[in-house]
Specification:
Length: about 400
């Protein structure tokens, strides 16, 4: 029995020596063992390029592995950023001059350091403030994922009413004429409405029609703190009008102003309204050939000054007029007109902004891309063929 115990001890001693030798040769094989060599940092997920609207913050993030503790230092253009010493770096509000800046991060521990790949910042045009209904939902969550299943394309007849809860609606289609000439009430207004993306709620889009003599009283009834009229068409020869308006489920402090303006004075009046922090959202010619202009102030943003540009154009030239406005940084906030007086596009932007806005002009709704909101819809006849122009902005 004693002999067997001696053999067992010899085997245990041999196994213990082998493990000791293995630990000596491969010290990193047991990272938690006392005295193990630290593991150098490695970048697991590189920071990625960011495209951020003017005035907002960009966020850069890195993920790294290696022995703790890991320290971080973000650089901009090769210069360390004071205080930027975590795995995530949030920039101050970006300015036009920040576009093209390159960001890297150095990750360090006791074993060494590693530098990430460079990530570039692109500064895009300013987004309307969250909750501001006056800008056709441009850059709002309603259009973030593009077209949603279940959209509705329809026409509204005189005295019709329609309401869409948790939908985003489009403006009326303007063309050579939605009404039969000389026939009272004989009109139809085309529009579309699309369900909001999953998780986005709180919007109601409504459309209705009434006789011209009720226009003033009807507009007063729509002038509630949580609603804005986004599209208006008056058809005096047919004694009828149609209107579309957007509402939220929260009281957000919008106030309507209705101005009666001669076409020649529209540019100057629009400039004055912009200086007063008002945004024009709907426009229509009335029986006297004057323009009924609907604009809104917003209690949540009473001081922003807006630049406004007006483009009076033909049906055929709507795409080029819209593209010129977008190239100058304008969001199309109002669109209306008729065959007799022409079409009017109203562009609005924060005073001094110069960055162009992305725009899509397509022949069908399906050409819309994620993030682009519908701001106008027109058509004309080229011979016997109808040509539609869907206009989307981001």
């Amino acid at each position: 029995m004693g002999s067997k115990m001696r053999v067992a001890r010899r085997r245990w001693g041999t196994l213990s020596s082998a493990c000791g030798l293995l630990l000596l040769l491969l010290a990193t094989g047991c990272g938690s063992a006392p005295g193990a060599a630290p593991i150098q940092p490695t970048i697991v997920t590189q920071p990625t390029a960011q495209s951020t609207p003017l005035g907002e913050s960009a966020t850069f993030t890195v993920a790294a592995s290696g022995s703790a503790p890991l320290t971080y230092q973000w650089d901009e253009g090769g210069s360390p950023i004071p205080g930027a010493t975590s795995a995530t770096y949030v920039t101050p509000a970006v300015q036009v001059s920040d576009s093209g800046s390159a960001f890297t991060v150095v990750v360090t521990n006791a074993a060494g350091s590693v530098t990430s790949k460079s990530a570039t910042l692109t500064v895009g045009p300013r987004s309307p403030k969250q909750g501001d209904l006056r800008f056709n939902q441009v850059d709002a969550p309603a259009w973030a994922e593009g077209i949603q299943p279940g959209g509705i394309a329809t026409g509204m007849l005189p005295f019709g009413q329609a309401q869409y809860t948790n939908y985003v609606g489009g403006p009326f289609q303007f063309g050579p004429g939605p009404c039969a000439q000389g026939s009272q009430y004989d009109c139809e207004w085309f529009y579309d409405a699309n369900p909001l993306p999953l998780g986005v709620i709180g919007f109601v889009y409504s459309y209705q029609s009434d006789v011209i003599e009720n226009l003033e009283s009807d507009l007063a009834s729509f002038s509630t703190p949580n609603s804005i009229v986004m599209t208006l068409d008056e058809e005096p020869a047919n004694d009828i009008f149609a209107v579309g308006y957007a509402s939220t489920t929260q009281t957000t402090g919008f106030a309507m102003t209705v101005s009666n303006v001669a076409p020649a004075d529209l540019e100057s009046v629009a400039t004055e309204l912009g200086a007063e922090s008002q945004v024009i959202t709907a426009i229509s010619f009335n029986a006297s050939g004057q323009l009924d202009v609907l604009s809104y102030s917003w209690q949540s943003d009473p001081s922003t000054v807006y630049d406004v540009q007006v483009a009076t154009t033909t049906f055929e030239a709507v795409p080029s007029a819209a593209q010129q406005l977008a190239a100058a940084g304008y969001i199309i906030t109002a669109f209306g007109g008729n065959s007799t007086n022409g079409l009017v596009l109203v562009g609005t932007k924060v005073h001094g902004d110069t960055l162009p806005r992305p725009i899509i002009v397509g022949s069908s709704f399906e050409e819309q891309s994620a993030g682009y909101a519908q701001v106008a819809l027109s058509f004309y006849f080229d011979g016997n063929q109808e040509v539609a122009n869907w206009i989307f902005e981001e």
